[in-house]
């Protein structure tokens, strides 16, 4: 007999999906008993359990995992919430977190806020409703009471459903001592870069990159401390803000390099910013490293392929993401603050 066809559509009509009552009917048990089987209830006899599972297989019954998680009987998700996934650093953070989540049977979600705090708040509310196991909140934020108050709100909302908020790649907040943070030594990484440049004889060392974010502030502090270590003071005219984009960095670097007294070295917030500096140096006919030394941060895959290869700070992004996921799933001691070490990778751009 031919399959029924839908009016105005090609192909057979879809077969309705089996539900819990269908499975119970096939197995000859009540829906309540079938439900106890799928929730792993210990009071169900083995013979009954076998009949229900066989009926489910025959009917191709799909268990509603979200509903189970919301009832506290299924696998709960781990969510990675960030403003964007720009650059390989975020790829590594996500990979580390996803591997831990999937290895432990937890669905892994990625949600983008695009820098919109209302969107971020709505995402956290949805994850709370879905009884996520934990949220890894990452990406730079504007420091201050407003941001800390918002993060505290998220932590309280998630704790109310026995979920964990973990700050991932974000500095620890003393005002939120019970909210774990897995960060990396941004201050020390840049401080090493400045020390390296000062040992090379540089005295006019500029800083180029984003301003007024948790990430930028930590890296600028490393720059400041590095200058102090070398007996140098900050020259405000050598500190230039720009977005973390090659085109913006290119424009900002041109302003620095076209000065009457240009810097002899530029410490860049990221490798992307350093790429913009390379373009500006090429436009100005300035040799790297002969007349300008450049350092980056992140050790992105392309940094070694630049000409000359870029001296940069290497970060264990994968390990940061993995550790944050472990904390979200409570697979490790709930240390409130972890800072993973960074390494200065010296290449040709600093001579």
Strand order of the largest sheet: 2-1-3-4-5-11
Listing every helix as H and every strand as E from the N terminus to the C terminus, the arrangement reads HHHHEHEHEHEEHEHEHEHEEHEE
Biggest sheet descriptor: 6 strands, parallel
Structural class: alpha/beta
Approximately how much beta-strand content do the residues carry?
Answer: 5-15%
Average per-residue pLDDT, rounded, comes to 88
Low-confidence stretches: 1-15
Helix content: 40-55%
- Tally of separate helices: 12
Radius of gyration: 27 Å
Distance between the termini: 80 Å
| Count of extended strands | 12
Spell out the blueprint of helices and strands:
Elements: H1 20-27, H2 31-38, H3 46-58, H4 65-71, E1 78-82, H5 88-103, E2 108-112, H6 117-129, E3 134-138, H7 145-159, E4 164-168, E5 181-184, H8 186-199, E6 205-209, H9 214-229, E7 239-241, H10 246-257, E8 265-268, H11 271-284, E9 293-295, E10 312-314, H12 317-328, E11 337-340, E12 343-345
Helix pairs in contact: 1-2, 1-3, 5-12, 6-7, 8-9, 10-11
In a nutshell, what does this entry contain?
42% of the residues lie in helices and 14% in strands.
Provide structural commentary.
By secondary structure, this protein is an alpha/beta fold. Helices cover 42% and strands 14% of the residues. It has twelve helices and twelve strands. A six-stranded parallel β-sheet has the order 2-1-3-4-5-11, with helices on both faces. Strands 7-6-8-9 form a four-stranded parallel β-sheet, with helices on both faces. Helix 5 links the parallel strand 1 and strand 2. Helix 5 runs parallel beside helix 12 and helix 8 packs parallel to helix 9. The N terminus is likely disordered.
